[in-house]
């Protein structure tokens, strides 16, 4: 049986895969594009309620999560920590906390220096991010003096981004905005989306990627390119399964080497989240709770979810030592 052929095959429908699929399918040449997603379409409205984004990754979002865990962490009494990765159209944008923050000037300039590519420099990245932003400041007028005043940092995605300020979120009109809702809601006719489908490896002719093999054994072929957009965990995992990685590691698992690349599957850097909570006396809050029925409490909870109160993160520097 001959493999099915497309011009481009994109693996993974997170922010990278979804935006790439939408942009490629809109080019003048109208190439045929297949976007493959291991998870489901994720069309349940309950998963898109804006205010639920703060807890969804630990509650209902587990239904669209890979369920990964870290290795035992020596500094945390050998605990294995949940490592959430979205498994649905939109990827982790459908399950994460939805903070819109793309780093600082020094950080991105260092990336550009390390890889020798000025595309990653702060000015270039900021310009590109501004092109895809559609910023809606819905702060009620009576509260603006608290949000847009010193000493708060007005733009956390600024050149230095040190300080405390209200964080923008990927939310609009009470609903979470995901990569799928932003880029895949009305796909072009030449863009084919295949959910609930797992890619087991990339296939090669020599050292040239030619297609993918699915978990069910089916082969799909791309006449132009295979684009891996499966995220920080599953992209290197797929490369390793395909024979690209440290040769000793591949041999240990009986995987034929296509390309010895010792950096694949190593040196992951992430941003751990530490939550601090404090218990205070009722009188310290200077508020007086009103008598409420069960229906009142339920209505207030729904209002909270739709309004989606903003976060107030603080960003600080760490000594290099």
Element-by-element helix/strand order: EHEEEHHHEEEHEEEEHEHEHE
Number of helices: 8
Strand order of the largest sheet: 8-2-1-11-10-9
Look at the structure and give the mean pLDDT: 85
Q: How many runs of DSSP E, i.e. beta strands? A: 14
Strand content: 15-25%
Based on the structure, what is the oligomeric state of the protein chains? single chain
- Which structural class is indicated by helix and strand composition? alpha/beta
Shape: globular
Radius of gyration: 23 Å
Folded structure, characterized:
The protein is α/β, with parallel strands linked by helices and 321 residues long. It contains eight helices and 14 strands. It has a six-stranded mixed beta sheet.
How would the blueprint of this fold be written?
Blueprint: E1 4-11, H1 15-25, E2 33-36, E3 68-69, E4 82-83, H2 105-115, H3 122-132, H4 144-147, E5 163-164, E6 171-172, E7 175-176, H5 179-183, E8 191-194, E9 199-205, E10 208-214, E11 219-228, H6 231-241, E12 244-245, H7 247-252, E13 259-260, H8 294-307, E14 314-315
Parallel strand pairs: 1-2, 1-11, 2-8, 12-13
Antiparallel strand pairs: 3-4, 5-14, 6-7, 9-10, 10-11
Features:
321 residues, 23% helix, six-stranded mixed beta sheet, 14 strands, alpha/beta
What is the structure about, briefly put?
The protein has helices spanning 15-25, 105-115, 122-132, 144-147, 179-183, 231-241, 247-252, 294-307, and strands at 4-11, 33-36, 68-69, 82-83, 163-164, 171-172, 175-176, 191-194, 199-205, 208-214, 219-228, 244-245, 259-260, 314-315. It is α/β, with parallel strands linked by helices.
């Amino acid at each position: 049986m001959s493999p099915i052929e497309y011009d481009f095959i994109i693996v993974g429908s997170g922010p990278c895969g979804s935006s790439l699929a939408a942009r490629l399918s809109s080019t003048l040449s109208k190439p045929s594009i297949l976007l493959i997603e291991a998870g489901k379409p994720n069309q349940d409205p309950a998963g898109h309620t804006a205010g639920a984004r703060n807890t969804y990754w630990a509650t209902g979002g587990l239904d669209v999560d890979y369920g990964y865990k870290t290795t035992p962490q020596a500094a945390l009494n050998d605990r294995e920590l949940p490592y959430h990765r979205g498994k649905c159209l939109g990827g982790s944008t459908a399950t994460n906390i939805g903070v819109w923050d793309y780093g600082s000037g020094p950080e991105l300039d260092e990336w550009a220096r390390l890889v020798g590519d000025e595309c990653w420099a702060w000015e270039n990245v900021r310009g590109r991010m501004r092109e895809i932003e559609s910023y809606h400041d819905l702060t009620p007028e009576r509260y603006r003096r608290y949000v847009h005043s010193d000493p708060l940092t007005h733009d956390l995605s600024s050149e230095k981004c040190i300080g405390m300020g209200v964080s923008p979120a990927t939310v609009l009109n009470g609903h979470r905005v995901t990569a799928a809702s932003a880029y895949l809601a009305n796909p072009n006719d030449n863009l084919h989306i295949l959910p609930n489908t797992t890619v087991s490896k990339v296939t090669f002719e020599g050292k040239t990627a030619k297609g993918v093999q699915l978990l069910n054994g089916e082969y799909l072929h791309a006449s132009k390119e295979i684009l891996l957009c499966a995220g920080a965990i599953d992209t290197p995992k797929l490369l390793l399964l395909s024979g690209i990685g440290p040769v000793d590691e591949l041999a240990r698992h009986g995987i034929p080497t296509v390309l010895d690349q010792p950096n694949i599957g190593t040196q992951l850097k992430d941003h751990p989240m530490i939550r601090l909570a404090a218990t205070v006396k009722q009188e310290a809050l200077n508020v007086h709770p009103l008598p409420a029925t069960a229906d009142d409490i339920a209505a207030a909870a729904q209002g909270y979810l739709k309004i989606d109160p903003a976060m107030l993160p603080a960003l600080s520097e760490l000594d290099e030592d």
